Amino acid sequence: MIALRYRETIPTSNLTVLHSDDLQCNSEDVQQIIEKNIGSEVIVSKESIYHELFMRMGGRWTVICREIQNDQSLPVFATRSPLFCSGNNSKVACFAAEF
Q1: Taking phi first (over 0 means left), then psi (-120 to 50 degrees means alpha), and beta for anything else, what does residue 79 get?
Q2: Terminus of the chain with fewer CB atoms < 10 Å: N or C?
Q3: In a domain, 16, yes or no
Q4: What are the pLDDT digits (tens) for 21-62?
Q5: What is the DSSP pairing of strand 92-98 with strand 61-67?
Q6: Which Pfam families does this UniProt record tie to the protein (predicted)?
Q7: What's the total number of domains in the chain?
Q8: What is the pLDDT of residues 59-79, one digit of tens each?
């Protein structure tokens, strides 16, 4: 069983687990918010993404952003959350997940 908000539970047998090296998002809404708010500065991007996620979707969110330098590989994240997404431009990579 996994606990949801307001102490609801769902059986884990009803969950779909997605495994893919290419999977970056499980929500088009979150993807659009990241694409709209990711910029050239890490802190501004993180705060803008978090603010819009909270205002539009509610819930509790974690947003992590980091600067991309030269040909660095993008960060890799593992999460167990109902909504998540990662995105990047040439300067900043960000990951958001609802908890």
Answers
A1: beta
A2: N
A3: no
A4: 446 889 999 999 999 999 999 999 999 999 999 999 999 999
A5: antiparallel
A6: Ground-like
A7: 1
A8: 999 999 999 987 777 777 777
**What token pair was written down for 50?**
């978090």
Q: What is the pTM of this model?
A: 0.73
Residue 71 lies in a domain: yes
Nearest Cα neighbor of 63 from 40, 87, 82 is: 87
Question: What Rg do the C-alpha atoms of the chain give, in angstroms?
Answer: 14
CA distance 20 to 41: 29
Rounded to whole angstroms, the Cα distance separating 65 from 81 reads 18
Residue 8 is given by DSSP the state -
Sign of the CA dihedral running 39, 77, 27, 61: negative
